[in-house]
């Protein structure tokens, strides 16, 4: 399940954005119900657990809407400036760090509620969670073409990045697609590394959840354990793997710079307009919550 914390973040904001601006109000407005539905897929909640989840998610959703959306607007404004200018890899990494920071704020706010929910889990629910994660891993590995080696993984990465680029900038020309494929072919896909990191996070998460269920530690100890887990969720602790993760992040940032550099003025204007629509929707949602 936690990826409970980060999936909560994705369902509250990022996943909604990828449906397009018209879905922001509908999707974000029902984010608490979406997260409850998602959690139920992993643990098959009892009526009591569902009531607890509903109460806590309504509360955290209200907090997020009232206090956090202005920061999402600020990140989008920063993105607009980068699209309008000539950013470098450091600029892109700074933007990514800002997004991670927003996620960590939400994770920290949600942690006590997650601790309370974990205390209610039965062994069979944890095993269902483990099975669900394993099923999702098979889907992830197939989509990333991990079994096809570097060539297959680069092909999957190209398809994924092209989809994202065209979401923000509109259709790419044949020449742009060829250039993107050439850039990706010149890099390590990194897919196997990030898949291994995914498995590492899941192992640590399941170990934490099973320990809570088995030993029933005090609530404050569970909260500390969750915060320790969140602290190294995004990056590994092992120095060698940390260096590799940082190198892959920088490579991705350099690729983002190169993609932006090959977009046309019309494509940049398209992205600016799309970000502006999102900023307006987030601003109005925040103002409505304050009112």
Description of the structure:
The chain has 291 residues and is mainly alpha-helical. It has one domain. α5 packs antiparallel against α6, α5 packs antiparallel against α13 and α6 packs antiparallel against α11. The radius of gyration is 20 Å and the shape is globular.
Strand-helix topology:
Elements: H1 4-17, H2 24-29, H3 31-43, H4 47-67, H5 69-84, H6 89-118, H7 123-143, H8 149-169, H9 174-185, H10 191-215, H11 219-231, H12 239-261, H13 265-290
> What is the count of DSSP helices, taking H or I runs of 4+ residues?
13
State the order of secondary-structure elements, H for helix, E for strand: HHHHHHHHHHHHH
For the record, the count of structural domains works out to 1
Binned strand content: under 5%
The percent of residues in helical segments reads: over 70%
Question: What would the principal axes of the Cα set say about the shape?
Answer: globular
Low-confidence stretches: 1-22
Protein structure class? mainly alpha
The value of Rg in angstroms is 20 Å
User: How is the biggest beta sheet arranged?
Assistant: none
Q: Could you report the average pLDDT, rounded to the nearest whole number?
A: 89
Number of strands: 0
Distance between the termini: 34 Å
């Amino acid at each position: 399940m936690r990826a409970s914390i980060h999936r909560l973040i994705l369902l509250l904001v990022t996943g909604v954005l990828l449906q397009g601006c018209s879905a922001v109000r509908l999707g974000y407005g029902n984010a608490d119900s979406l997260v409850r539905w998602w959690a139920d897929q992993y643990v098959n909640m009892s009526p009591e657990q569902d009531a607890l989840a509903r109460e806590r998610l309504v509360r955290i959703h209200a907090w997020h809407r009232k206090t956090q959306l202005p920061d999402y607007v600020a990140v989008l404004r920063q993105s607009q400036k980068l699209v309008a200018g000539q950013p470098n890899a450091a600029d892109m990494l700074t933007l990514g760090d800002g997004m991670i920071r927003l996620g960590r704020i939400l994770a920290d706010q949600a942690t006590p509620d997650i601790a309370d929910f974990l205390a209610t889990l039965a062994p069979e629910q944890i095993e269902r969670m483990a099975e669900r994660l394993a099923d999702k891993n098979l889907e992830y590995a197939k989509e990333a073409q991990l079994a096809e080696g570097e060539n297959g993984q680069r092909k999957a990465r190209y398809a994924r990045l092209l989809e994202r680029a065209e979401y923000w900038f509109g259709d790419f020309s044949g020449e742009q697609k060829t250039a993107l494929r050439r850039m990706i072919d010149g890099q390590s896909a990194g897919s196997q590394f990030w898949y291994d990191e995914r498995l590492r996070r899941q192992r640590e998460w399941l170990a934490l959840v099973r320990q809570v269920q088995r030993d029933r530690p005090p609530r404050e100890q569970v909260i500390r354990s969750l915060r320790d887990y969140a602290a190294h969720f995004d990056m590994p602790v092992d120095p060698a793997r940390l260096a590799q993760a940082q190198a892959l992040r920088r490579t991705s940032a350099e690729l983002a710079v190169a993609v932006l550099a090959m977009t046309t003025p019309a494509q940049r204007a398209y992205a600016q307009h799309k970000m502006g629509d999102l900023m307006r929707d987030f601003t109005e949602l925040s103002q409505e919550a304050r009112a």
